[in-house]
Amino acid sequence: MELRQLRTFEAVVREGSVTDAANRLGLAPSSVSQAVRALERTLDVELFVREPRGMRTTPAGERLLVWARRLLDQAEQARREVTDAGRERPVVRLGALESIAASVAPGILRRLAERRPELRVDVRSELDRSALLEAVAVGEVDAGLVLDTGDTLGDLGFPLPAGGELDFLDLDPVPLRLVAAPGHPRAGEVLGPADLRGERLLVNASSACSFALAARRLCGPEVERVSAGSVAVMRAWARQGVGVALLPEFAVADDLAAGALTALRLPTPTLRLRLTWASARAAHPPTRALLYAAGG
């Protein structure tokens, strides 16, 4: 059975004659008759009783009418859904650590909007890097933004999810600054890591924090750690002289400019904002669109 045959059949039933159905469909009466007879041959049943004043359905025709209307309704629904899907903006699901979602992600989103304005990006913020990378690996998000360093993913010292290979693209550098309260006794001196002995280093409560991992690599185990919670808390405590903190430049730039913090002259690492995705999803259209926009 063909949909056009079912439409013709349903029109004949509704109008009661071949001529009236032909007028409604904009077809020649002969075309309507041929479609009905082809349908009867396909089903090997008579669908109509032909009478001088019109046509009425046989029991088989009554049964087919129920199915014809159901199938035509489903075909129309399928057409609408497919057409609507073709008109929708493609959605890219982007995950980001909460520490960078507020300050760094907006710049990435602006870049995407400029390069691929047809994309709609849904951002999922995560507190835990392991949860974010797991979501990337299993396809819950198309890609994730993390902070890292080195030539391979995880060089900063964090574990990768088991199973499922991840690829990455470096987007922007994220410089770090070692900051302290104004008037710190070592302000203005050129320092090395050994000069930090005796200092109190403010770190995130989570040892897996990117800035805590970078501080461990920079300062070594000899420097006393003080758990201070979030980046905002570390910055506030550093302003009040509780200790020094290794923080991203974007988080302390305003305080440095205002004189509320001072930067100690110690060479600090630069982290990289990395876009990571599951290797198996590189050909997935939303993921491919995101990579094109981010790396173009």
Automatic annotation (TrEMBL):
<comment type="similarity">
    <text>Belongs to the LysR transcriptional regulatory family.</text>
</comment>
<dbReference type="InterPro" id="IPR036390">
    <property type="entry name" value="WH_DNA-bd_sf"/>
</dbReference>
<keyword id="KW-0238">DNA-binding</keyword>
<protein>
    <submittedName>
        <fullName>LysR family transcriptional regulator</fullName>
    </submittedName>
</protein>
<keyword id="KW-0804">Transcription</keyword>
<feature type="domain" description="HTH lysR-type">
    <location>
        <begin position="1"/>
        <end position="58"/>
    </location>
</feature>
<dbReference type="Pfam" id="PF03466">
    <property type="entry name" value="LysR_substrate"/>
</dbReference>
<dbReference type="InterPro" id="IPR036388">
    <property type="entry name" value="WH-like_DNA-bd_sf"/>
</dbReference>
<dbReference type="InterPro" id="IPR000847">
    <property type="entry name" value="LysR_HTH_N"/>
</dbReference>
<keyword id="KW-0805">Transcription regulation</keyword>
<dbReference type="InterPro" id="IPR005119">
    <property type="entry name" value="LysR_subst-bd"/>
</dbReference>
<dbReference type="Pfam" id="PF00126">
    <property type="entry name" value="HTH_1"/>
</dbReference>
